[in-house]
Amino acid sequence: MTASARAMPTEPDPPRPADVEAFLAEMRAMGVEAQGYEILRIYVRETHRRLGQLEDAVRAGDADAIDAAAHSMKGSAGTVRAPRLKELLQQVELEAQEGRIERARALLDEIVAEQGAVLRQIEDLLP
After folding, report:
1. Using CA atoms, how far apart are residues 106 and 21, in angstroms rounded to an integer?
2. C-alpha–C-alpha distance, residues 82 and 32, integer Å
3. Treating both helix axes as pointing N-terminal to C-terminal, what angle do 20-29 and 101-125 enclose, rounded to 10 degrees?
4. What's the pTM value of the predicted model, to 2 decimals?
5. With respect to CATH, is domain 32-125 assigned 3.40.50.620?
6. How many CB atoms sit inside 10 A of residue 112's CB?
């Protein structure tokens, strides 16, 4: 390896889908770290059900159900500090409120992928 190759800066790590560590640090600072881990376990357990509700609502074209499911998931994404997922869910929520079901449907694959990345990160962190 040449000296110039060694001097080349490395690419920064890609951003993590959630800042779970910040969530746990906050819980630790409040003296409730064990509850933080329990919240993460509940998040993992409930995510599949909530995502299923959103997918069912989108398939049915039910704007009110899409809005409700996205709103619920958005709050959970905020809790675990998953900003991209929260943003996507907010977009779906707004599209549903405006009756733009096809636009909400178009975001579903991206939500599924981002949710999967968040889940993998949390699952890797859980004891």
Report:
1. 31
2. 21
3. 60
4. 0.85
5. no
6. 13
Tokens describing residue 10: 């490395």
What residues have CB less than 8 Å from 122, skipping those under 6 apart?
Answer: 18, 20, 40, 43, 44, 80
Per-residue pLDDT of 34-47, as tens digits, reads: 999 999 999 999 99
- Ordered DSSP codes for 30-67: TT-HHHHHHHHHHHHHHHHHHHHHHHHHHHHT-HHHHH
| pLDDT tens digits for range 113-124 | 999 999 999 999
pLDDT band per the 50, 70, 90 thresholds, residue 127: confident
Q: How is the chain split into domains, by residue range?
A: 32-125
In order, the DSSP letters of 2-34 are -HHHHHSPPPPPPPPS--HHHHHHHHHHTT-HH
